[in-house]
Design a protein that fits this description.
With 655 residues, the chain is an alpha+beta fold. Helix content is 49%, strand content 17%.
Length: 655
């Protein structure tokens, strides 16, 4: 059905119109009593070429050509009204179904995904250094963790040191020794509730509430908020703590670092010192280059130093568990545009936030459309189920099928409709109808779809962009139906007409020179030479090919290739070097191995017979007839509406 949304203003011939001055300023065309304003033309043209910028850069001839097509389009739409398409129940049903399908997708994309991605993109321009105090879940669950965390937060609010409370109470053994520091993070990396809290908190502040995650209860402090650098590129010189004998010798490492620093200060080239000093064998041959990397990909000390540097800057020695590093920053990546980052944002959004936002949307629709479940029908549905499950035949359908199970927007859904819908999808097959939670889960899922469709049916009333999309589709199905009635259904393709067309145009249907050939193929030159010797001694080419050719799938056909254009493939081009049927080639290197080709048949160029050309001729005849009928229809509209384009006014477009 969706494929019926055609390119609705693609027509065959331009109208022959008279240019004259308009009676009314701002009108660029008239047809009958109807007018096309310059604003309407500009909107339609900009949509057609993709943007206002493209429209403004178009030529005047482009405007003329489009205007001719647009007038034809508008006359067709008026004809659709005259024929009563706007009140055709079949077309209206198709529009309603389309609006439901497209509207639901549009709703999810525009109300959830697009705003979510843009919010995430904006937040990820910043990175935050975060500390936390965590109370883990125990046998009492999140309630117990929260109960333990709230008094600690109260103490901090009353002046207790956050860092001291972390050391005393935090159950995150990794961050507690460092005052709860979990280093730099950005949006999309942490649990949603944690993520939301940190972006609501200023640097130096503690979030005023305890935050719940699946890990436990958290008290959060923000120590820094800075613009985010997505990636940096750096080179380094590593001086390991271990000497060549593999023994720990930090004193010797420090002496070596001092020598390195002295040479740098004396002006020795960094890359030269990489080769002289670095113990990192993985980067030593690449001038110490580590490539581009993100936050948290390097050890904390290295990361912290490198991300504070400017391009070209060389650091003081940085000590890590691996040894001493001297770092040179060689590049910084700019924050990507929304479109560049879109796919990555989508993955983060779907993983972290989508389900919550989707649930929020459904909850809002339940309120908006006064959704309610009839508990009496729910109880009856369970009571009469006789312990069957979804996907099975309900035993007492007559007792429940007409009872209202839930309602929304003044509409009702019966238990029978609900059972039919659930069983049609198969999503809940096997779940028990006599277990309340499982039935409620199914009701919630079914009602979600009804609520989304209801919102989709109202979307064009509040969303101009969606209303425009629906108007385009409505025009599309009207044009499609007109084409059916005036062109496609009237095209008469009979054998006699097609044959007459072929007789009148035989010279158009020439066939190229064609050949049929066979091949013996082997990956080894020794084998192909052996087969060639056998051929020279009188062996059958087809028998050898059937036994030995290594071309996949070709043993069964003795290496045979049907008639084909001599220019069709590398195979046919190679075989075409043979002159006479029955000739075979010497072994030639071919497609990663070696081949011997035999020419089976050669057909010279010539005219196709009717049977050979029939499909092609039929297609051209149908196209010719369609064009003739289209021209007849347009001429009829021209006679009815006498269209006029005011070219002087059209020249003012996009000025």
């Amino acid at each position: 059905m969706l494929l019926r949304y055609l390119t609705i203003i693609s027509f065959s011939f331009l109208l022959m119109l008279i240019a004259c001055s308009p009676e009314q300023s701002g009108v660029v065309a008239e047809y009958g009593k109807y007018k096309i304003s310059i604003d309407e033309f500009e909107n339609a043209y900009a949509k057609n070429v993709g943007s206002l910028e493209n429209a403004e850069n178009s030529s005047l001839q482009d405007y003329y050509d489009f205007m001719d097509l647009y007038v034809k389009f508008k006359m067709k739409l008026r004809d659709a009204e005259v024929r009563g398409y706007t009140t055709d129940t079949e077309l209206e049903d198709e529009l309603t179904n389309y609006q439901k399908q497209v509207g639901v997708s549009y709703l999810i994309e525009k109300e959830i995904v697009e705003p979510g991605l843009r919010d995430l993109h904006e937040k990820r321009k910043e990175e935050l250094r975060v500390s936390h105090l965590m109370i883990r879940l125990d046998s009492t669950g999140i309630e117990g963790a929260m109960a333990n965390a709230v008094p600690i937060l109260d103490s901090i609010k009353n002046g207790a040191s956050f860092e001291e409370m972390v050391k005393k109470y935090s159950q995150d053994q990794f961050s507690a020794p460092g005052g709860g520091d979990i280093f730099y993070v950005t949006a999309g990396l942490l649990p949603l509730s944690f993520d939301d809290a940190i972006y609501k908190t200023n640097a130096g502040e503690v979030y005023p509430e305890v935050v719940q995650t699946r890990y436990g209860a958290h008290i959060i402090k923000i120590t820094e908020r800075i613009p985010r650098i997505p990636k940096i590129q750096a080179s380094h010189i590593l001086i390991s703590y271990f000497n060549p004998a593999g023994e720990m010798d930090s004193a010797a490492a420090l002496i070596t670092v001092d020598s390195l620093v002295a040479e740098l200060e004396a002006g020795v080239d960094f890359e030269e010192l990489v080769e002289k000093y670095s113990d990192d064998t993985g980067t030593k041959t690449k001038s110490g280059d580590l490539g581009f990397f993100e936050r948290r990909m390097m050890v904390k000390e290295f990361d912290e130093a490198a991300f504070k540097m400017e391009v070209g800057e060389i650091s003081d020695p940085v000590q890590t568990n691996f040894g001493y590093h001297v770092i040179k920053l060689t590049g910084k990546m700019e924050y990507p545009s929304f479109e560049e980052e879109r796919e990555n944002l989508k993955k983060l959004f779907e993983k972290q936030r989508y389900q919550v936002e989707y649930d929020n949307l459904i909850d809002s629709l339940r309120v908006k459309y006064n959704y309610s479940v009839n508990d009496e029908t729910l109880d009856l549905l369970m009571e009469k189920s006789d312990s069957v499950r979804f996907g099975m035949e309900y035993p007492n359908l007559d007792l429940v099928k007409d009872e209202v199970l839930f309602s929304y927007a003044g509409k009702t859904v019966t238990a029978g409709e609900f059972l039919f819908t659930v069983n049609s999808t198969g999503t809940f097959a096997g779940k028990a109808i006599f277990i309340r939670d499982e039935v409620i889960e199914a009701i919630n899922k079914v009602s979600e779809d009804f609520l989304k469709e209801e919102e989709a049916l109202n979307l064009d009333k509040v969303n101009p962009q969606f209303a425009s999309l629906m108007n385009d589709y409505r025009a599309g199905i009207y044009i499609f139906k007109l084409q059916e009635e005036e062109v496609w259904n009237k095209v008469n393709i009979d054998s006699a007409s097609v044959n007459n067309y072929w007789n009148a145009n035989k010279e158009k249907y020439a066939k190229p020179e064609m050949i049929s050939f066979s091949e013996i193929f082997s990956l080894k030159d020794s084998l192909i030479n052996l087969y060639y010797e056998s051929l020279q001694e009188g062996a059958s080419f087809d028998s050898l090919a059937k036994l030995y050719t290594e071309r996949p799938g070709k043993k069964e056909t003795s290496g045979f290739y049907e008639l084909q254009d001599v220019e069709f493939s590398d195979f046919s081009k190679e075989a075409n070097k043979l002159e006479n049927a029955g000739d075979y080639s010497e072994p030639v290197p071919f497609s990663g191995g070696y081949s011997i080709f035999k020419l089976n048949e050669r057909q010279p160029t010539g005219l196709k017979t009717f049977e050979e050309a029939k499909a092609e001729v039929s297609g051209e005849y149908q196209e010719m007839e369609s064009k003739r009928l289209e021209d007849e229809y347009i001429n009829g509209l021209n006679n009815r509406y006498n269209p006029v384009i005011f070219y002087d006014e059209l020249e003012k477009a996009f000025k």
